[in-house]
Design a protein that fits this description.
This protein is an alpha/beta fold and about 270 residues long. The protein has eleven helices and eight strands. The protein has an eight-stranded parallel β-barrel with strand order 1-2-3-4-5-6-7-8, surrounded by six helices.
């Protein structure tokens, strides 16, 4: 059965400890862990706190940058990703989110080759650690600093070229639902490691200004229904950000997200 998760990006102002405490109190069964918050709290302490809380870890955010767009060398980015894989394994994360890195002056073919080489090199460790690497494409309106993968087809072609069961897709509704892709979901559902659930009132333009679930224009019900009908039973990790979200009452936002997710699942059965 599909499960709700809350991503720490959503509650940006809270600390890691506050996230764990409040998610658990709200009855949310899983957490999407943001490495920055975990690092600030302390990785070992954080893993212990997660174990004590009973929260499952749906995904760990993030590793990548293999094109050098964030100032790190290819080898430095690989070593960081290896650390992230081991961290994901230690907390029992369902998957590790991977961003390829921006083009950074490379040709598209060279950027693609760097990402593919990195993922192929990481796959054996990921398999050993039993961690799935979930590659996330982003909408072209806001992808420039994170990834050159700006469409579903582009990302699926990369996964096909790598051909590893450890490398799957992170499907973010905010980035992908602006395109007509619902008809593709039956074919791609087996390749989805996690769904990031976000809504928006208009396509992103540089900034990701997401809205609360059900208050944007994205066809979330159609997407969740299609995924459910296609056999997806993984996590839906609520990932919200932007001016509207940052100004929210986080306690109320948790309850709203929980209620809206339950409604989406109920409607799938009708």
């Amino acid at each position: 059965m599909a499960l709700l998760s809350m991503n720490e990006v959503t509650t940006y102002r809270w600390s890691f400890e506050e996230d764990v405490k409040n998610y658990r109190a709200a009855g949310i069964p899983a957490i999407g862990v943001w490495r920055q918050k975990l690092s600030d709290f302390g990785e070992d302490r954080g893993i212990d706190l997660l174990a004590e809380s009973g929260l499952k870890v749906s995904n760990l955010l993030w590793a990548g940058g293999f094109t050098g767009s964030d100032g790190h060398t290819f080898r430095e980015s690989l070593e960081d990703a290896e650390d992230a894989i081991r961290l994901a394994a230690a907390m029992g994360a369902g998957c590790l989110i991977v961003y390829s890195g921006a083009r950074a002056g490379h040709t598209h073919n060279h950027a693609r080759r760097l990402a593919a080489d990195a993922l192929k090199e990481l796959a054996p460790l990921a398999q050993e650690m039993e961690v799935v690497l979930a590659v996330e494409p982003m909408h072209p309106g806001c992808a420039s600093e994170c990834t050159f993968l700006t469409s579903l087809d582009m990302t699926l072609n990369l996964l096909t070229a790598i051909d590893s069961p450890q490398i799957k897709l992170a499907f973010d509704t905010y980035h992908l639902a602006h395109d007509d892709m619902i008809s593709q979901l039956p074919q791609i559902t087996p390749r989805i490691a996690i769904v990031h659930l976000g809504d928006g009132k208009h396509p992103p333009e540089r900034e990701q200004n997401r809205s609360r679930l059900g208050e944007g224009t994205l066809p979330l019900q159609e997407i969740v229904s299609a995924l459910s009908a296609s056999g997806y039973d993984g996590y839906y990790d609520v990932e919200l950000m932007g001016e509207e979200i940052e100004a929210s009452d986080y306690q109320e936002l948790l309850q709203h997200s929980k209620a809206r997710f339950a409604s989406l699942l109920r409607n799938c059965a009708k």
